[in-house]
Amino acid sequence: MHQYLFFIGDFPIRMYGLMLCTAIFLATGTAYFLAKQDGRWHEHILDIGIYGGFAGLIGGRLWDVFFFDWDYYSHHLLEIPFVWQGGMAVQGGMLAGIAAGIVYCKLHNIDWVALADIVSPSLLIGQSIGRMANLLNGDAFGTPTGGSFGILYPEGTLAYKTYGPVPLWPAEVWEGQLDIVIFALLLLFRTTKHARGQALCMYAMLYSVVRFFLEMLRGDYAEPWMFGLKSAQATSLGFFLVALGFFIYCGWLEKHQPVAKEKAVGKKSKK
């Protein structure tokens, strides 16, 4: 891993920032491809990618600060913008990015649920590259493996500061790889007959499952937050249950909407 690409004087160009920019760029490009392939709203993707990307960075940072590390940042408020120290929560970035996209869609009369179904796989591309950024930066690391296998982080990284020169589980690497697996599964799911909104729900459910179990290996924070679960586990469980509920509701709505429309047409014809 390599934290710095080069220096301009004393100012470092960090691999973390470069990889996050790459993540936003490639996720937006993938979303554009998927939307253009579908034939709807692709001309709006670049704007949504810019707004959603910035919102995601802010949301990801604030989520990490308030849900994961508030005990520290409550006493170091000036360090909240120091994202290079590590600390960008995927769940907060996802929520903020989607919220920004919804606002944009509302302002431009776009069916945001249908668009989210189309582009949801592209979010996994951004998340996977984001985990590459974590690896290069030495954050989002795992706990000690207890053996001679694992990742050895160099001095200067948060992982080394936390555990020293001991092998750690490659939690961020495995999550990035599983993001690609979910990406492929979502593409396959979109080829099947499904109700409006179910692809977005499937994205939330699959990622939540992966995140819930990988949190058992994470070592950058370990304090239980709720019911003995880490904060990311508790929120992943919440996201999964909400997404599952909406997945079922979307399927029910798809089956009953045609009936409702037929009844409405029948009443109009009688009049």
From TrEMBL:
Keywords: Cell membrane, Glycosyltransferase, Lipoprotein, Membrane, Transferase, Transmembrane, Transmembrane helix. Catalyzes the transfer of the diacylglyceryl group from phosphatidylglycerol to the sulfhydryl group of the N-terminal cysteine of a prolipoprotein, the first step in the formation of mature lipoproteins. It is a multi-pass membrane protein. The chain crosses the membrane at residues 13-33, 45-63, 83-105, 197-214, 234-253. Pathway: Protein modification; lipoprotein biosynthesis (diacylglyceryl transfer). This is Phosphatidylglycerol--prolipoprotein diacylglyceryl transferase. GO terms for cellular component: plasma membrane. One of its GO terms (molecular function) is phosphatidylglycerol-prolipoprotein diacylglyceryl transferase activity. It comes from Phascolarctobacterium succinatutens YIT 12067. Signal peptide: none annotated.
